Amino acid sequence: MSAGQPLRVVIADDQASVREGLVLLLGGLPGIDVVGAAADGEQALARVAEQQPDAILLDLHMPVLDGIGAIRRLVAEHPEVAIVVLTTYADDNSVLEALQAGARSYLTKDADRTDIARALEAAAGGLTVFDPRVHATLLAAASGPPAAEAADPGERAPAMPDGLTQRETEILGLIARGLTNAEIAERLFLSGHTVKTHINRIFAKTRSRDRVAAIAYAQRHDIS
To answer: Which of 25, 119, 157, 161 sits in a 20 to 30 Å window from 99, CA-based?
Structure first.
């Protein structure tokens, strides 16, 4: 998104009334340009490919391709697009699965349009926003790991802290080992832009201001 340009957004929700309401609400805000709307995950991917938006606002429970599947595809095919979840569900499974898939922010549908717009703008800038219910869910999940995970501390659990995906964890480990963006891109056969996008998401999820803070985070969580 260029400075001074409106934030270009796609909205995906299978309920027509919700989808159309969001288009009207957000489209009426200064600085937001709703460039597409979709009723399912496949349509969402098509709109993103057509419009190349800065961000997408999507529900998790949609037909044809659900929100989690759509998030995974978006991360793989359009990593530059910021993903914000807007859904009814704030249970730990939904939140963690969405963040692990690659969502940057997570709101429930009782959020007002100002909160939604703020979350979209923050996500497009590489930051993460959670509403209070979601934040409480994450804290509860972080404070009480399943017994099966605690039983073997020598074996790394597949779910990483703060919703890091497997790819983000891999890149964070390479950062901790001192590799530059170019070296990471070469090693993982990724473009420099894709690596930068992943690193922005890592910084947002781990609340790291720079590489030094990210390395300290990696050391605290034994990521290498």
So the answer is: 25
pTM of the predicted model as reported, rounded to 2 decimal places: 0.62
Spell out the domains of the chain, with CATH numbers in brackets.
7-139 (3.40.50.2300), 158-220 (1.10.10.10)
Q: What is the DSSP string of 43-80?
A: HHHHHHHHH--SEEEE-S--SSS-HHHHHHHHHHH-TT
Q: Which of 206, 8, 210, 193 is nearest to 99 (CA)?
A: 206
Q: pLDDT for 91-107, tens place per residue?
A: 667 788 888 888 988 88
Taking each continuous run of H as one helix and of E as one strand, the counts in the chain are 11, 5
Beta bridge partners of 43: none
CB 182 within 8 A of CB 199: no
Residue range 11-41, pLDDT digits in tens? 999 999 999 999 999 998 989 999 999 999 9
Tell me the C-alpha distance between 218 and 224, whole Å. Answer: 7
Average pLDDT over residues 71-89: 92
Q: Coil, strand or helix: which one is 143?
A: helix
Using a 10 angstrom Cβ sphere, with 0-12 exposed, 13-18 middle and 19 or more buried, the burial of residue 37 is buried
Buried b (16+ CB within 10 A) or exposed e, 184-214: bbeeeebeeebbbbbbbbbbbbbebeebeeb
Per the listing, tokens 């999820």 go with 205
